[in-house]
Amino acid sequence: MQESTRENIGQRRTAAETRDLIFQAASQILIDEGLSSLTLAKAAEQAGLSKGGLLYHFPNKVALIDAIFEYHNDIFERRLDELCAEEGHAPGAWLKAYARASVEQIIDEDTASLYASLFAAEEKYASAHAKMRQKYIDWQDKVENCGLDPNWAMLIRLTVDGLWFSEMHQYGPPNTQQRDWLITQIMELVDQHQ
Amino acid sequence: MQESTRENIGQRRTAAETRDLIFQAASQILIDEGLSSLTLAKAAEQAGLSKGGLLYHFPNKVALIDAIFEYHNDIFERRLDELCAEEGHAPGAWLKAYARASVEQIIDEDTASLYASLFAAEEKYASAHAKMRQKYIDWQDKVENCGLDPNWAMLIRLTVDGLWFSEMHQYGPPNTQQRDWLITQIMELVDQHQ
DNA sequence: TTTACTGTACCGACTGGACGGTTTACAAAA
DNA sequence: TTTTGTAAACCGTCCAGTCGGTACAGTAAA
Fold this sequence. Notes:
The structure is a homodimer. Chain A is an all-alpha fold. The first copy, chain A, has two domains: 11-59, Homeodomain-like (Arc Repressor Mutant, subunit A, Orthogonal Bundle), CATH 1.10.10; 68-194. In chain A, 76% of the residues lie in helices and 0% in strands. The A-B interface holds A 34-36, 116-117, 119-120, 122-124, 129, 132-133, 136-141, 151, 154-155, 157-163, 165-166, 169-172, 174, 178, 181-182, 185-186 and B 34-36, 116-117, 119-120, 122-124, 129, 132-133, 136-141, 151, 154-155, 157-166, 169-172, 174, 178, 181-182, 185-186. Chain A binds a DNA duplex through residues 10-13, 15, 18, 39-41, 49-57, 59-61.
């Protein structure tokens, strides 16, 4: 995908561009209609190509699903890195960035809906689940080594995950005031336990 | 289901008993193979009857799924009531019971696997999702009114939910020592904020 | 500077299987 | 003799994946 700014000197789309188109199309279907509506035919149609065309880029549905997970994981982790850089290298910086990135993403209704579908997909697609489990293990490792008391760091991480979970599924989520209090308190807990 | 202890004076099974058999069969399929393997035919077979027999008790798959949710919700809430009674009526009793019931359930591998399937099912079955959302809203209401500072009570509830979430999906879950510390700390937080 | 060939990207009809739900027939208890 | 419960064949739909083929860009020998 390097220097894709050249804007097609020839008329043809690059494979990377098409794959991106497919990711966005598939994600939109997950947001609008959910996992059960994500069929190969529909994803292809939404991306503006045929099923055969889609299957040229992804050999089967599992490969597509896996790639979608990587795509969104990358987006989240890029944002995480950004926020981490903003926090500097103070103790707890990583955990604060994790909290901010999580809240930021899940506040958006579309993203929440997208993630709800992705988490549901993990039940069906074992490879995607394995990928996510590894992500969380990596994150937990960072949580334990970000300069805080490891036990407290984990507790705070689980609180953030609980907030995420409750916002994602709309399980008795906090209202705006409550959410603000929670975020402030989470940040304070980070400061208190370094 | 009242007084089903009578153990069939006639030979025939009662409808309630058959339904219970179906719930257990369906749950076992969810545990062993997951949501996509829960078909009407398979559930019937596992329960030891035919598809027609199953559809006599549940008019369609949605009705079956809904009933399975009610079945497991009832089990959880009965346990919650039990533990709540044990805690007496001290401030935070309900929240402590919620924490204990949650941990107790999710520690068991089969139950964790079952719930992972049930949560995934919510993405596909809107009525089940609505049911669960209402449950969480009710629980959040109890959390806010169990005698603690409402904000702190919510934070603690979200921590418990985060722990549940991480155990259920095996997302970087705590080890045994860490889990013990977390539970102790959660109980202590309840005591500190009443 | 045509011609022949190769690889990339894409198309769309088709197949085979799974699954939810219907229908019909039948058995036994009340 | 009606109600309750069970069985099993069958139907229609949906969908993942296959496959033969097209369009076109680049390349290189003729």
